[in-house]
Amino acid sequence: MNCKLLFIAFFNLSVSHAWAESTLDARLLLRHGRFIENVDASSNLIRVDVTQKKQVGENWDGSIGFKQELEAIYTTQPDQYSRDIKKEDTYNFWLKETWLRYEGQIFSVTAGYQTVVWGEAFGTAYADLVNPKDYRELGLDTLSETRISIPLVNFQWIWGDSSLQILYLPQAEHHLLPLRGSRYSLLPDNFKVERSSADFGRNDIGLKGSFRWGTADISLFALQAADRFPVYTVSHVASEIRLRPQFKNLTSLGATLTADLSDLLLRAEVIYNLDREMQKGGAFYEETLKTNELIYVLGADIVQIKDWEVGLQYSEFRLQEKENYLFRSDVETSASLRLARSWDSDISFELLYNQHFDKNSHWISPS
């Protein structure tokens, strides 16, 4: 369904308190949105976010946090949801930033539920590969809010302007995608997707090295893990097509660069996914195909234009095998604009606009 947002309103209340060796952050978010094609279709989200951090001795600290969400419109207007959306689908409780850390002079290790951010792009996750995302509302939230904390062990070494990071992920988790019957569902009504869960007992590994060269910060990274997006095994029951998600192994290699040129900040990312398994289109959607995927991002932030920060970004996705894919085109591009400003009274404004195109678009023709 193509749902276009008419307007959205936020109320965000944050409270922070610090003691000698402890801090407490609590946040309440109330969000209301309505949509163009149906004025009765609305979204009322209530989110509570609490994190407490405490220093324990000279080299140890820890954090306990959670995020709780409720889609309140379910109880007042349940007719907006189909029979495929259960009441529990509108309620979420996640552990967030719940970990224990040891930190020495050049070495630290953190174990527990964490968020690890890779990449320099804004608006969309490209090199930000480690944490799965909540895509059930397809972009109403900021990228930082869509990240889901996962259990991992994070080893880090820092020497001056260089660093090395090794990640161990004991289980594979996946993006949360719109369910059939929700307002953002990408599937036709005769498709039914079976529920999926985390894959325990894995040994996924991430590696990232960073260094500074002149005015540029450069990072090289590799991640061997389960693909956050699924492919499906397909079965047919009467007129219904049933999809069972599978999360295949994926090796991702990449590099990021930022260069500070006085009032201009240049950003670039390159990600290469090896033998990514993709769902093919066609009459029965039963075939998959392994293909290499290249993603690159070029961007520039103009630090100040009359107190405004302006960011421009262009990205392109390319699949090596040119086929009819179920959810993708073999070439896709995106253009993004970001405007931001802060005032002395702790009031801030940010506008982020993304426009996505496939290879048949008349707006941007990829080379």
Would you kindly provide a written description of the structure presented here, covering whatever features stand out?
It is globular and about 65 Å long. It is 2% helix and 61% strand. With 367 residues, the protein is mainly β.
Average pLDDT for all residues: 81
Q: Give a quick account of the main beta sheet: strands, pairing sense, barrel closure.
A: 17 strands, antiparallel
The computed structural class is mainly beta
Taken from the alpha-carbon principal axes, the silhouette is globular
Number of strands: 20
Kindly provide the radius of gyration, computed on alpha-carbon positions and rounded to a whole number of angstroms.
Answer: 22 Å
User: SSE order in H/E notation?
Assistant: EEEEHEEEHEEEEEEEEEEEEE
Strand content: over 45%
Spatial gap, N to C terminus: 30 Å
Oligomer: single chain
Number of helical regions: 2
Notable features of this structure?
17-stranded antiparallel β-sheet, disordered C terminus, mainly beta, 2 helices, 367 residues, single chain
Lay out the secondary structure.
Layout: E1 5-18, E2 22-35, E3 38-56, E4 60-71, H1 73-76, E5 91-95, E6 98-103, E7 107-114, H2 143-146, E8 150-159, E9 162-172, E10 191-193, E11 199-213, E12 216-226, E13 231-237, E14 240-246, E15 249-261, E16 264-279, E17 288-305, E18 308-319, E19 331-342, E20 348-358
Parallel strand pairs: 10-14
Antiparallel strand pairs: 1-2, 2-3, 3-4, 4-5, 4-6, 6-7, 7-8, 8-9, 9-11, 11-12, 12-15, 13-14, 15-16, 16-17, 17-18, 18-19, 19-20
Short description:
It is built from two helices and 20 strands. The chain has 367 residues and is mainly beta. The protein has a 17-stranded antiparallel β-sheet that branches. The protein has a three-stranded mixed β-sheet with strand order 10-14-13, with no helix packed on it.
